[in-house]
Write a structure and sequence with these properties.
With 317 residues, this protein is an alpha+beta fold. It has 6 helices and 17 strands. A hairpin with a 5-residue loop joins strand 16 (251-253) and strand 17 (259-261).
Length: 317
């Protein structure tokens, strides 16, 4: 979609010789435009919910909530959090999970520690411990397996024998790595509290967080889990809405110096918004272009088109 959006923007600009927008400028405007529309989804969803509560929202083909929810859910993801120190875990980021959290919906804690030890042999997609007794420890399919040495997380596929478990991914590639296994069935949702409140909670025997009712607080780019016994890799998982990936129109330079679209490049990234928002992307990018080249007519055109835009599922109702 990103190439179609750029072609539309250039076509409108060139119609009246307003100027040319370089690929780097276009990519910058595309990022900002996508983020604007992405944030509108949340306010739109809030408006629709309020309309439903007031019994002024439609149903069936007039149901606006479901398409907005489906679009938002496409950005909903779940990741195990990387451990920082003891009971501190990093908030999802490009470095730790490969994406950035826009809004953390839930923090889940797995508190039932089933087994720990060291792998004694390397087998593809497997955990092998000649000293273990996996069959008698109550380990089930989908239980969480953590390579404590590397921080990699996988899950149980099949308990093959007392000493061997097959995994859903290959996280043990060298002998001597430490591991931990946690029950997938025993999970609790941590309650988010303020830094000031957690001090008060911890000083009371009645309200202190427990493995049954854990809590967490934000500490910069980390979250701190209480009780402090929840302090192992693979024990904490976040369910969150991520930021959309930064769009990038990639190209090759032709002999005459003009850029030609090339999506085969490794850093190519299309818009992550639905096709129905292509029109909104064009108009928003035109606003940025108008300000860049100091042509008020271009900015006014983009704003006017948005004002007269036919309602879509992503438009605030």
């Amino acid at each position: 979609m990103i190439n179609e959006v750029r072609n539309s923007v250039l076509s409108i600009l060139n119609k009246n010789n307003y100027g040319y927008i370089s690929p780097s400028d276009f990519n910058l405007y595309a990022k900002n435009a996508q983020m604007e529309i992405y944030e509108e989804y949340y306010s739109s969803y809030n408006k629709v919910i309020n309309s439903e509560n007031q019994r002024v929202s439609g149903t069936d083909y007039a149901d606006i909530e479901s398409p907005i929810a489906e679009t938002l859910e496409s950005f909903l993801t779940t990741s195990y959090l990387s451990q920082s120190l003891k009971n501190q875990f990093y908030v999802p980021s490009l470095i730790t999970t490969g994406d950035e959290a826009y809004y953390i919906l839930k923090v889940l804690c797995y508190t039932n520690d089933l087994a720990s030890g060291t792998d004694t042999s390397v087998l593809l997609n497997s955990l092998v411990d000649s000293t273990a007794s996996f069959t008698s420890l109550g380990i089930n399919d989908d239980d969480i397996v953590v390579n404590i040495t590397t921080g990699a997380v996988s899950s149980v596929n099949v308990v093959v024998s007392a000493t061997t478990i097959t995994l859903t991914s290959n996280i043990f590639t060298s002998i001597g790595d430490s591991y931990g296994i946690f029950s997938k069935k025993v999970v609790t949702e941590a309650d988010k509290v303020s830094a000031g409140k957690i001090t008060m909670l911890n000083t009371s025997t009645l309200t202190a967080p427990s493995t049954t009712f854990p809590s967490y607080v934000y500490q910069g780019n980390k979250i701190e889990i209480y009780p402090k016994t929840i302090n192992k890799k693979g024990q904490v998982q976040a369910n969150y809405f991520r930021f959309p990936k930064v769009p990038k129109w990639t190209y090759v330079t032709l002999i005459d110096g003009s850029p030609a679209f090339d999506q085969s490049q490794s850093d190519y990234q299309d818009f992550e918004l639905p096709t129905e928002d292509e029109y909104k992307l064009v108009t928003k990018i035109l606003e940025y272009c108008g300000m860049s080249i100091r042509e008020t007519e271009v900015t006014q055109f983009g704003m006017a088109q948005q004002a007269h835009e036919q309602p879509t599922f992503s438009v605030q109702q």
